[in-house]
Write a structure and sequence with these properties.
- About 40% of the residues lie in helices and about 25% in strands.
- The chain has helices at about 40-50, 85-100, 105-120, 135-145, 165-180, 200-210, 225-235, 235-245, 260-270, 280-285, 290-295, 315-330, 340-355, 390-400, 425-439; strands spanning about 5-15, 25-30, 35-40, 50-65, 65-70, 125-130, 145-155, 185-190, 215-220, 250-255, 275, 300-305, 370-375, 405-410, 415, 420.
- The chain has an eight-stranded mixed sheet, covered by helices on one side.
- Strand 1 (about 5-15) and strand 2 form a beta hairpin.
- It is of the alpha/beta class.
- The chain has two domains: about 5-65 and about 360-420, Roll (Urease, subunit C, domain 1), CATH 2.30.40; about 65-355, TIM Barrel (Alpha-Beta Barrel).
- The protein is globular and about 65 Å long.
- It binds zinc ion.
């Protein structure tokens, strides 16, 4: 007798991104509840399971959903507001705007718009850092994406807290309200060492450890930041963070553009995740992170878009392609960050950087069904050479566009089918941004 399952998906190719980088031609996977219960040849699965729902994709790839390892989702409402500025000047414009305009309703709308864009580009998990993070959590959970959500703690007055003590209390309430949720992982987010005091950093570390939750912060984004840190504290940025216990947490460090080899070693030994944000680093003139070197040293590196205020989109296929290209000019070596490794950074690597590698990032039995179906039918994907078993990675990294993502499932739930979003009303959300832009 066949085993009952909820969904059987079969396709021309299954790209598992498991430890063996297994590829299954004419493969599929079985989903029961939120979990993947089998991955293998399509014929075998058809013989073994009785699915309530089944879909066959003859000209498609099934692969893990992408992981956007660093963003500020609600800032999607500031897309294109301040372009072509230096990071410190850019922050000088943005932070007063945030204090004046950002409230809970703003954050909810920005989150919905951001989630719509993420789903369309094949993302099923993301790491966020912003204000009113409980509102981000509610919208994200309702829409059905998986996320690490960091409640920001700043030494300045913020849109959701007038003091850092208030911000910490808010962060504690957020963690208590959401820790253990099936999709949402709350986290503590001191914005960066330069918007924090030593006391603030230590209090954030204590809070993260008390609840065993991740800590999400920015590290060494610009050379200017590094010079300031060395000048003020006679230490580099990673050492200064380490001095205050940050590396003793489940750390997710965004950027790490200007870190030395010893700093990489510190981060690697701490089991820290690094979120590489190539477009944002280019747009703000920050530099190019040494991703291939970090990867060789065994760091948990993921790829992120950062916010649309410095990108200006959340397109992960564009981001991972850029990551592969930049890695090659960083050391003038075109063999750095080959296609397969780049796709690994944006799937399993991102999941590990977010400290959720046991839940998502690859198509394996026991993990949640976080997956995307990618069409290979577009003109930009032909011809399709199969001279090398890994040619599929080349197509996915160098030629595929986010518009090729046809279906998206997260936690066993369909979020997009045939390019139609099922859990967010895109027309309503985009219309609601018009009065915001006018204001
Ligand atoms: Zn950021």
């Amino acid at each position: 007798m066949k085993e009952p399952i909820d969904t059987l998906l079969t396709a021309a190719m299954v790209v598992t991104m498991n430890a063996e980088f297994e590829l299954i031609a004419d493969g599929g996977l079985a989903v029961r509840g939120s979990y993947i219960v089998a991955v293998g040849p399509a014929d075998e699965l058809r013989g073994r399971f009785a699915p309530a729902e089944s879909h066959h994709y003859p000209h498609h790839i099934i692969m893990p959903g992408l992981v956007n390892a660093h963003t500020h989702l609600a800032m999607t409402l500031m897309r294109g507001l301040n372009d072509d500025l230096r990071l410190d000047v850019w922050l000088g414009y943005l932070m007063p705007i945030e204090r004046q305009f950002v409230d809970e309703a703003w954050v909810r709308l920005g989150t919905k718009l951001g989630c719509a864009e993420l789903i369309r580009s094949g993302v099923t998990s993301f790491a966020d850092m912003y204000y009113f993070e409980e509102a981000v959590a509610e919208e994200t959970a309702a829409i059905g994406l998986r996320a690490l959500l960091g409640q920001t703690v700043l030494m300045f007055p913020a849109p959701d807290a007038s003091t850092y003590e208030d911000a910490l209390a808010r962060c504690r309430r957020f963690i208590e309200g959401w820790n253990g949720h099936e999709l949402i992982q709350p986290a503590v987010s001191p914005h960066a060492w330069y918007t924090a005091t030593p006391e603030l950093l230590r209090a954030c570390v204590a809070l993260a450890k008390e609840y065993d939750v991740p800590l999400h912060t920015h590290i060494a984004e610009t050379e200017y930041e590094v010079q300031n840190c060395t000048h003020l504290h006679d230490m580099n940025v990673t050492e200064w963070n380490d001095e205050h216990g940050i590396l003793g947490t489940k750390l997710l460090a965004a950027h790490c553009v200007h870190i030395t080899r010893p700093e990489m070693k510190l981060l690697q030994e701490a089991g820290a995740g690094v979120a590489h944000c190539p477009t944002s680093n280019l747009k703000l003139g920050s530099g190019i992170a040494a991703v291939a070197e970090m990867q060789e040293m065994g760091l948990k590196v993921g790829i992120g878009t950062d916010s649309t205020a410095s990108n200006n989109d959340l397109d992960m296929f564009e981001e991972l392609r850029l990551a592969a290209l930049l890695a090659k000019v960083k050391r003038n070596d075109p063999t750095d960050l080959p296609a397969r490794d780049t796709l690994a950074l944006s799937t399993m690597g991102g999941a590990r950087a977010l400290h959720m590698g046991d839940k998502t990032g690859s198509l394996e039995v026991g993990k949640h069904a976080d997956l995307i179906v990618v069409s290979t039918g577009g003109a930009h994907n032909w011809p399709q050479f199969n001279h090398h078993p890994e040619a599929v990675y080349s197509r996915l990294v160098y030629a595929t566009k986010s518009g090729d993502v046809q279906d998206v499932m997260c936690h066993g739930r369909w979020l997009m089918r045939d390019r139609t979003l099922l859990t967010v009303d895109e027309a309503e959300v985009t219309a609601a941004t018009v009065p915001i832009a006018q204001k």
